């Protein structure tokens, strides 16, 4: 039985997601799905129902490899770092620090979209031929982080 990071009512930031568009998204835990299988995770894992806290939807992949979005949907506990809790643990503080950076990034992105009327907010590689690099993507989303810091955070959370 895994120890859960989150509880209903918590704000949390998504980390280590299979689809990079979800990484860094801030969500609120609103319900329980329970234990189930999840792509990329061996065995059963605990899954919450979450809602996005900004106008940045969750992205899911269907069985035909097509993508769809939802404002409320399931997310495994192990992909969430709580950012509001009574605990003062290092992971909670790290989650708060990441959330501040993500919020600032989302606000800059929304301002840019309004000013340039962009049609896409994809956080994947800018070139269709450039392979996805999760470390580079995290640095792009959180200016000021170094490659060493991103790798250290990923290792600390078992990614």
Distance between the termini: 19 Å
Q: Total helix count?
A: 3
**What is the total domain count?**
1
Mean pLDDT: 77
Q: Which structural class do the helices and strands define? A: alpha+beta
Strand order of the largest sheet: 6-3-2-1-7
Strand content: 25-35%
Helical proportion? 25-40%
Radius of gyration: 15 Å
What would the keywords be for this entry?
159 residues, alpha+beta, 5-stranded antiparallel sheet, two-stranded antiparallel ribbon, 28% helix, 28% strand
SSE map:
Blueprint: E1 11-14, E2 26-38, E3 41-52, E4 58-61, E5 67-70, E6 72-76, E7 80-82, H1 90-116, H2 134-141, H3 147-156
Antiparallel strand pairs: 1-2, 1-7, 2-3, 3-6, 4-5
Characterise the protein shown here.
This protein has 159 residues and is α+β, with helices and mostly antiparallel strands. The protein has one domain. Helices cover 28% and strands 28% of the residues. It has 3 helices and 7 strands. The strands form 2 sheets. It has a 5-stranded antiparallel β-sheet. Strands 4-5 form a two-stranded antiparallel ribbon.
Produce a short descriptive summary.
This protein has about 160 residues and is α+β, with helices and mostly antiparallel strands. The chain is built from 3 helices and 7 strands; from the N terminus they run E-E-E-E-E-E-E-H-H-H.
């Amino acid at each position: 039985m895994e120890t859960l990071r989150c509880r209903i009512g918590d704000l949390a930031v998504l980390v280590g997601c299979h689809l990079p568009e979800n990484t860094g998204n801030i969500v609120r835990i609103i319900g329980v799905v329970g234990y189930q299988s999840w792509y990329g995770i061996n065995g059963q894992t605990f899954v919450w129902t979450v809602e996005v806290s900004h106008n940045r939807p969750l992205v899911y992949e269907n069985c035909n490899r097509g993508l769809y979005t939802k404002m409320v949907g399931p997310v495994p506990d192990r992909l969430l770092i709580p950012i509001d809790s009574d605990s003062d643990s290092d992971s909670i503080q790290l989650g708060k620090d990441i959330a501040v950076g993500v919020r600032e990034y989302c606000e800059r992105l929304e301002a840019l979209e309004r000013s340039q009327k962009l049609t896409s907010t994809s956080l994947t590689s800018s070139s269709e031929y450039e392979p996805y690099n999760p470390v580079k993507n995290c640095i792009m989303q959180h200016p000021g982080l170094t490659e060493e810091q991103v790798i250290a955070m990923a290792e600390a959370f078992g990614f």
